[in-house]
Design a protein that fits this description.
Layout: E1 4-8, H1 12-24, E2 28-32, H2 35-44, E3 49-53, H3 61-71, E4 77-82, H4 86-94, E5 99-103, H5 107-135, E6 139-140, E7 143-144, H6 148-160, E8 167-170, H7 177-186, E9 195-199, H8 205-213, E10 214-215, E11 227-228, H9 230-233, E12 238-242, H10 252-261, E13 263-264, E14 273-274, E15 278-283, H11 287-292, H12 298-304, E16 307-310, H13 320-336, E17 342-343, H14 345-353, H15 359-373, E18 378-379, H16 386-389, H17 409-423, H18 428-435, H19 439-447
Parallel strand pairs: 1-2, 1-3, 3-4, 4-5, 8-15, 8-16, 9-12, 12-15, 17-18
Antiparallel strand pairs: 6-7, 10-11, 13-14
Helix pairs in contact: 2-3, 5-13, 5-14, 13-15, 18-19
């Protein structure tokens, strides 16, 4: 639909001139020669933006602007002021105007300013809708998101949460894989028993077996007493083995045997202990490739990967970015005791455009920093890190109209495969699925 612009100017000829030109530029226009009529129109019609003169009899442009802001703060107001009247323009901005243009009006600039005002209003409406959605708790336990990708994940979680099936959670670093595991536990029949998590990459190889299975007194130096392992600590509950792809090869058959038999043997002990634990594993690695390369046991992979849940990267979740940003903003504002209410339209646009290589973890850090730095009741662009403020998205360029710039089809394919691999953090299994290839075909193309 064409945006509707309300023009208020006491000169009828000016209104008619502006109407004629703006209609040619794909705007719909309604105009009045008095501010009183303009206020009635704003309250009664779906106006997208207002263009008003400042010097008018009766209610002048500044007062008109203030009344619009009081009654319809969602509608941006652009004011027209005489060339060089900077003080008047500043007063208009203070009265709540979105922007100003100088007379005589340059129509190309005016059209651009009005379009920016319309885009600003649409973005503010989107932020408002998303904030309301956040208040309605579009979430599954601790997970937040309304995107189709997250809705599919919620559906899968609801179906498998109360089963005893082993779950493998995949996804890039920072996407929230542990939150998925915690949500599974919270919806399971084991919810009243412990949830225990360990990062396999964070422990030295020599300590991982002891950490998982426990040890007996004297099993090694500093083992001054018996110690329960994580399988025993999670008894009756859920055990999350995060970054399972980093588990040493020597440890993998021991884990497989424990899972197959339901028993663990503490380090240094000659007896086995039974356990009742639901196992959930998580990884940001491509385990199928690791199996083919001999870095992960195939039998263990099949044992832990009964059901696979994929946590989507933040860049593929659309406006979930704003839902999460609003959630973290409220969290950190409350902690800091600051009256920060939301995101400005410009900030929302920057957050939506950024690629978020660090995913939700990076977004949380960015919002925490912005809340700490801001001097306003809404986050401003200056509160964001430079890499977010100055981000420019990359595109796969395949050539222009100049024949000398055109490249062979094979080169186009190579560039696109490289682009997809970068987008999925090198995960060849996911890349093959996106490209519509089987994994062997993808490997063959990569070798050329």
């Amino acid at each position: 639909m064409r945006p509707l612009v309300l023009i208020v100017d006491d000169e009828r000829s000016m209104c008619e001139l502006l109407e004629t030109d703006l209609k040619l530029r794909q705007f719909d226009v309604v105009w009045h020669t008095s501010a009183e009529e303009g206020i009635r129109t704003v309250l009664e019609q779906p106006v997208d933006t207002v263009l008003t003169d400042l010097k008018m009899p009766g209610i002048d442009g500044l007062e008109f602007c203030r009344r619009i802001v009081e009654n319809r703060p969602d509608i941006p107001v652009v004011v027209m002021t005489a060339f060089g009247s900077l003080d008047t323009a500043v007063a208009a901005i203070r009265a709540g105007a979105y922007d100003f243009v100088t007379k005589p009006v340059e129509m190309d600039l005016l059209a651009l300013t009005l379009q920016r005002a319309v885009d600003h209003r649409e973005l503010q409406e989107k932020v408002k809708i998303l904030s309301q959605a956040a208040e309605r708790a579009t979430r599954f336990e601790e997970l937040i998101g309304a995107s189709p990708a997250m809705q599919r994940l919620y559906d899968q979680l609801a179906r498998v949460a109360d089963t005893e099936t082993s779950i493998l959670i995949t996804g890039e670093s920072g996407t929230g894989k542990e939150l998925v595991a915690r949500s599974l536990h919270a919806r399971s029949r084991r919810r009243d028993r412990p949830f225990v998590a360990v990062n396999c990459a964070a422990l030295p190889d020599t300590l991982l077996e002891s950490e998982l299975f426990g040890h007996s007194k004297g099993a090694f130096t500093d083992a001054r007493s018996d110690r329960k392992g994580l399988f025993a600590q999670a008894e009756g509950g859920t055990l999350l083995l995060d970054e399972i792809g980093e588990m040493p090869l020597a440890m993998q058959p021991k884990l497989l045997r424990a899972l197959e038999e339901g028993k663990v043997r503490p380090v240094g002990s000659d007896r086995e202990l039974s356990f009742d634990v639901r196992l959930v594993t998580a990884t940001n690695r491509d385990l199928e490739t690791a199996v083919e390369e001999g870095r992960f046991r195939e039998d263990l992979f099949f044992r832990i990967n009964v059901i696979q849940l994929d946590m989507p990267p933040l860049r593929s979740r659309g406006t979930d970015t704003l839902l999460l940003a609003q959630h973290y903003l409220e969290l950190f504002a409350a902690r800091a005791g600051k009256a920060v209410e939301g995101l400005s339209g410009a900030v929302a646009e920057k957050l939506l455009n950024y690629s978020w290589p660090g995913n939700v973890r990076e977004l949380r850090n960015v919002v925490e920093r912005a809340v700490a730095l801001t001097r306003f009741n809404k986050l401003a662009v200056e509160d964001l890190p430079e890499k977010v403020r100055e981000y420019r998205s990359s595109q796969v360029f395949i050539g222009g109209d100049d024949p000398s710039e055109l490249v062979p089809l094979e080169e186009v394919e190579r560039r696109y495969i490289d682009h997809v691999l970068r987008a999925v953090d090198g995960n060849k299994t996911v890349a093959a699925r996106i490209l519509g290839l089987d994994r062997k075909t993808l490997y063959r193309k990569l070798q050329h």
